[in-house]
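Writing this down once: the sequence line spells out the residues, with the fold written below as integer tokens. This is how one looks:
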Amino acid sequence: MRSWWRVLTRFIKGFHFRNIQVLISSSSITITVLVVVLASLMLYGRFSKVAEENAYLNLKQIVEQVNSNLELYVSGMEDIFNVTQDKIGQASNVSHNELLGEQMDTILSTREDLVSIALFTNDGQLVNSVPAQPMRKNTKLTEQNWFDAALLMPGTLQFTPPHIQNLFKSDYRWVVSMSKMIDYRDETGMREGVLVIDFNFRTIDQLSQRVSLGKNGYVYIIDGIGNIVYHPQQQLIYAGLKYENLEPVLNYTYGSYLDDQNGEQRIITIQTVKTVGWKIIGVAYADEFLSTKKELADFLYQFLLMSIMIILIINIYVSAKISNPLRRLEQSVKQVEKGDFSTHISVGGAYEVEQLSKRFNLMLRRIRELMDQIIQEQEAKRKSEFDVLQSQINPHFLYNTLNSITRMAEMGRNKEVVTTITSLSRFFRLSLSKGKPIITVKDELEHIRHYLIIQSIRFKNKFHYEIKADEAVLDCQTLKLILQPLIENSIHHGIENSVEEGMIFIHAHLQDEKLIFTIRDNGIGMTKEQLAKLLSGDIRSESGSGVGVFNVQTRIQLYYGKSYGLHYESEPEEGTIVTITLPVQRSDDHKTGGSVNES
């Protein structure tokens, strides 16, 4: 729980619209919530429609069941009426016919819901009845609905709405009457009369009350002109209370619609009893039958709130898992900005962040390695420069040269003294070169020429030399003092120990866009082992500058890279060839004065 609280606290503190955690959380939450809301609305629309259709279908099936039962019941009553009519039509005299009486008693006893069977003349006189009971006075028989309907539509069976049976002196009963004009025989012959059969209204009441349309729903029946045949509040209706709005009902033969009564929505479902033209109307309250729709809305609302809360928590947690490694990486970068290259971040989080953290750590390690390498190279470079400076003022070389000048002066060789002193002064002037490490090829060759003049005088012309340079290379730039250690090595290790007259050839030219120096001597040469020691710095001259071949190689590669440097070719008693490869770099300010060729 505390970890969740810390994540939420960091999220609130670090809230900024450009913050990656805020961007991830807000975008994913927005998209997910929109999808959930859209899905919820679609589900609600779909399921609510299905629930509403099911509610209407359920009501329709219930009312159809009532209609089916009522049609079956009415059909049975019609059959009884037809049987009775047939029996009366077969009787020779209905007035005093015991057999007909027995037959009518039998018909009456077959159904508990049959109340009475009676035959009247057209003027309302009783011809025969079962059970045989005296009639009430002042019944106004000819004014009753069932009698008038039979006379108005002869040959058609008429059904009357429920009414109180008041023909005979017995209990007052609620009945429904079936009446029809029929033919019968009496003493006078064939006559027309009205047959009426009353059946108990309670049966229709029971058929209708069996229906369950929710807690408050009900079913009622009307005839074709809007008279109420049955209603659960029958007594209130007969008392004069207008309980139902029958106007829209009369316009429907079959179907359902919503009706708003006193602020309550009711679902009205209508079926027509085809045999009698009655309409069965089912009334169900929408809030009961459409409760599934409301429950679904409540469920989806709760589901939506719960989903948003879960999505919010998960997104904040996931975005924190993604952004926290990035924050740590950001802090590490800030430490690097401050110059702390020893920082290290933990590798974790998403795959991409993990890979980025690994690469960052590798980058820092590589930077530290490069820094250490730069430090080492700078130290080596400073040491090499120090060695070069030492070579510029090497006391041993200077002592030997001055000693040679003294001997030549004593011997009266003044011209050689002047030449040596002049070359020595120019040699040191070019060696210093105002402290610049880079000079032109022309100056480097001039420097080595004066060095060779001094050395040839010292060694009493034991060797000869030749310097050759293409005009195109004279204004190129080169490291200073890279030729002297190599020529010094040729003199002291190659020519000095040779019995033959020595020869040193120096050539500067361009080849494949590179500056090439070639030094060739005819000295005693070197074995592969001696050459390896020379290149590794193990062989050093005791009388020379002390810089060595190794330091020349190191200086070149420090300045120009590993692809440049020295290449030796040497065989014992064959001599040695040294090739120096440098990049072509020119000085715009330097003005050349022609090629250098001297022997």
